[in-house]
Amino acid sequence: MPKHILxxxxxxxxxxxxxxxxxxxxxxxxxxxxxLDGLEKLYSLSEVDLIVSDVNMPRMDGLTFIxxxxxxxxxxxxxxxxxxxxxxxxxIQTGLTVGANLYMIKPAQPEKLVRNVKMLLG
Length: 122
Description:
Strand content: 15-25%
Largest sheet: 5 strands, parallel
Structural class: alpha/beta
Mean pLDDT: 96
CATH architecture: 3-Layer(aba) Sandwich
Distance between the termini: 15 Å
């Protein structure tokens, strides 16, 4: 059974690119266009093994999304990778503090993203 990845990003281009990369590696992929959509998809899916999330999104930003996911026992242990253009030390620290396991700066090298996803999935 392939591992299931939820990709949350308001950029359709980024969603499609990350989805393409992950599908090529054999992962099952679901995409969401912001944090609210991400929560809806997360709640409706039987299993999500890892989340890749942007930070700056309309309706619900990535930090609020991650914090909300982490506050719920059923989803507390899902690895979360932030993929954002926000690359200042304070941005990275905030992302890790709210519950991300890893913070990557866009544009991320596909090989590095895949390597990190596989590492987090064990």
